[in-house]
Amino acid sequence: QVQLVESGGGLAQPGGSLRLSCAASGDIFNTMGWYRQAPGKQREWVATITRHGSTNYADSVKGRFTISRDSAKNTLLLEMISLKPEDTAVYYCNARNQYNFSYWGQGTQVTVSS
Length: 114
Fold this sequence. Notes:
The protein is an all-beta fold.
């Protein structure tokens, strides 16, 4: 049974930082990534990382967010700095297996507010 469990969300002030974690189990995952959904908006892609460590970022987070993974532990991380109010959203962990089947976590809330 595949499980993706996010943690690390919470409240941060503008300019602050947070770190999100995603513990993945139950399959071998190729590309893993983070998505987010703000109230009243569609879910959007934030960043992805391949098994070989290649990363890609949405323009809105480039230079502020860093995605990484520990393949041995099947753990995905997202380091977020210089947070902005517009980063407020529910953040979802995503993982794709060798058949490109996509799994999702339950989401973790990130709120950036003074």
